[in-house]
């Protein structure tokens, strides 16, 4: 795989998302999105934003969106395909990571964002 560059910035993380598209009684896997991020943390935030946008579409009249990590992880599990390619500068190659790796990283990020008082529970 070639190194991906956008606007003179080296891309370190590429997120691949395939969502289910429902047509009456058929489910097709036609929606595939590739997004470039400059860091793993930006990629993890991007996954959370995808889920938050999904919730906004489900609840368009709700003034705020709240969810817990189990709901986010169910959404991740329900995606047809979700993978992350992380650039390794030592080998000049991309390392693929699956949903489980992404969920572990998201958990760590959210735990860190919650701060020390929340992580001791």
Itemize the secondary structure elements and their pairings.
Elements: E1 5-6, E2 9-10, E3 13-23, E4 26-37, H1 40-58, H2 69-78, E5 81-88, E6 93-97, H3 99-114, H4 116-119
Describe the structure.
This protein has four helices and six strands. With 121 residues, it is α+β, with helices and mostly antiparallel strands. The strands form two sheets. The chain has a four-stranded antiparallel beta sheet with strand order 4-3-5-6. A two-stranded antiparallel ribbon has the order 1-2. Helix content is 40%, strand content 33%. It is globular. The chain has helices spanning 40-58, 69-78, 99-114, 116-119; strands at residues 5-6, 9-10, 13-23, 26-37, 81-88, 93-97. Helix 1 packs across helix 3. Mean pLDDT is 80; it is low at 1-9 and 20-27.
Summarize the structure.
It contains four helices and six strands. The chain has 121 residues and is α+β, with helices and mostly antiparallel strands.
List low-pLDDT spans.
1-9, 20-27
Strand content: 25-35%
Distance between the first and last residues' Cα: 43 Å
Order of SSEs: EEEEHHEEHH
Q: What is the arithmetic mean of pLDDT?
A: 80
User: How much is the radius of gyration in Å?
Assistant: 16 Å
Order of the strands making up the biggest sheet: 4-3-5-6
- Number of H- or I-type helical stretches: 4
Name the structural class: alpha+beta
Which of globular, elongated, flat, extended, rod-shaped describes the shape? globular
Number of strands: 6
């Amino acid at each position: 795989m070639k190194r991906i560059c956008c606007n003179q910035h080296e891309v370190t993380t590429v997120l691949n998302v395939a969502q289910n598209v429902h047509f009456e009684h058929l489910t097709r896997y036609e929606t595939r999105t590739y997004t470039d991020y400059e860091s793993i943390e930006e990629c993890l935030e991007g996954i959370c934003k995808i889920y938050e946008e999904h919730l906004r579409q489900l609840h368009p009249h709700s003034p705020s969106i709240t969810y817990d990590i189990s709901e986010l992880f169910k959404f991740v599990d329900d995606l047809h395909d979700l993978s992350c390619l992380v650039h390794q500068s030592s080998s000049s190659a991309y390392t693929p990571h699956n949903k489980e790796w992404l969920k572990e990283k998201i958990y760590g990020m959210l735990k860190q964002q919650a701060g020390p008082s929340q992580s001791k529970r």
